[in-house]
Specification:
about 180 residues; 3 helices; six-stranded antiparallel sheet; 6 strands; alpha+beta
């Protein structure tokens, strides 16, 4: 029975080639998603505000283990009534580790109180009350930029090393000066 010989060096080289192929692809994907996320967040933060009335407010234990501040509110736009429970820019934005933090938010917004809601003029059913600073888009942009920079630096180093090896080979083949 013949034993199969594994060329570990060839496998390692192939693995590095795959990694170096995936690095710029992943970097570009992160840049694209980060740019999309940042652009969408900036657009939402510029939605106009209108008066809304709180119709229900409570704290509930969320499945994630945090305490969710639930605010339901009603607003009118162009004589049409809309209702929403979106507190933050994204779902889950106002889920707190400590119940007292959720209680404080609810206490500041009792039923029948007025709040300012940001409303999408193109789709008035979309609204939210508060936006917490979100760095996800910026983090994705930074991660993508770092991956691309690492790829470029690695390629520069790789080509510089091969150029130095070529120079050394040519110097060894060069004729020696007479003594």
């Amino acid at each position: 029975m013949r034993e199969k010989v594994i060329d570990y060096i060839a496998l390692e080289e192939r693995g590095w080639k795959i990694i170096f192929f995936l690095m710029p692809v992943a970097g570009l994907a992160l840049l694209w998603f980060g740019w999309q996320r940042t652009r969408a967040d900036n657009a939402r933060e510029n939605w106009p505000t209108i008066a809304a009335i709180v119709t229900e407010s409570r704290v509930e234990k969320a499945p994630e283990g945090c305490f969710a501040a639930r605010l339901h509110y009603r607003y009118f736009l162009n004589d049409t009534k809309y209702e929403s429970d979106r507190v933050g820019l994204r779902l889950g934005d106002y889920c707190f580790a400590a119940q007292r933090d959720a209680d404080d938010l609810i206490a500041a917004h009792p039923v029948a109180s007025e709040v300012k809601a940001r409303v999408n003029q193109d789709r008035p059913e979309e609204s939210y009350l508060y936006s917490q600073p979100d760095r996800t888009g910026i983090s994705l942009l930074a991660g993508g930029g770092l991956l691309l920079a690492l790829f470029i630096l690695t390629e520069i180093h790789h080509h510089t090393r091969h150029d130095e090896e070529d120079i050394d080979l040519h110097l060894e083949d060069a004729p020696k000066p007479p003594a």
